[in-house]
Every structure is written in C-alpha cells, then in structure tokens.
Amino acid sequence: MPDRTPRPAPRDPPRPRTPLSRHFGIINAVITVLFACVQNAGRSQIAAAIFNAFADPEIARAVSAGTRPAERVHAQVVEVMHEVGVDLGAAIPQKLNEEITRGVDWLITMGCGEECPVIPGVRRDDWPIQDPNGKSIAEVRHIREEIELRVRSLLWLLNA
Question: How far apart are CA 51 and CA 35, in angstroms?
Fold first, then answer.
C-alpha cells in the first residue's frame, strides 16, 4: 500500500541578497553612500560607522566627509561610539571634495545646508539631525540612536 503521509512542499531556494541597483539606476558593483556634515567630526562619522557595521560589505559601504572638517572627531562622539563597540579614536575628518564624491551612489547630508554639494546623478537625502558638538553624553547617545534608526532604514531600502 502506498505511503500517503503528507510531505512538506519543497522549499524555494533562498533569494540571493542583491542591491536594488536596477531600481535606482546604480551601476557600481557595491553601493557607496556618502554621509556629509559640516565638520565630519560627529553626525557623519557616526552614520558611516553604523552603516559599515551593519551593511553586507559585498553590497554596500559608507564613507563620510565634511565641508569644513575639524581636526579630530568630537571626544563625546568617540565615547558614545565606544559604548557600542565602535572605535572612532583614530578616525580623521575628511574634506568633502570632488575626489571623495567619485563613485558615490547616495549622498546623505546632515546639517550642512547650502554648503553640501549637489552631485549630478546621485540620489540625495537630508537628515535634519542635531550637531553633537558641545552636547552632553546623554544628548549624544540620543543623536547616535536617531542616526542608527535612519541608517537601518536606509540599509533595508538598499537591501544591504
């Protein structure tokens, strides 16, 4: 007599994780997101570090820069990022220039207003996030958490 025990349906193979490049017109193999603020000593450093910590490096990566870079990352930013296992102690703020924008697919501006460039062919979004410079550790933690929520949403959108 044949066995009539129900069998589970065969599973489809897992869907490969690929960037949504076709939808966004991105031609690079790896999506590059540039986070930009004024001094590249706070918000953009936090955003790039969190993005790179959570992103699949085969799909996306982040860099950061500022229109008027500071000499070093703000001490309170280094401290609150250390709390979550990210060392920004050796990070050096970079100038936002043409060289750093080459190959960028997304530009996320964070408070640099008119100073932040428009890069032709690059998707742009502005995140109105407070500057952590001169803020208390508790306030900088809140800024870090707000940035993390936005970065995670961006990663979800990019499927990265």
Answer: 10
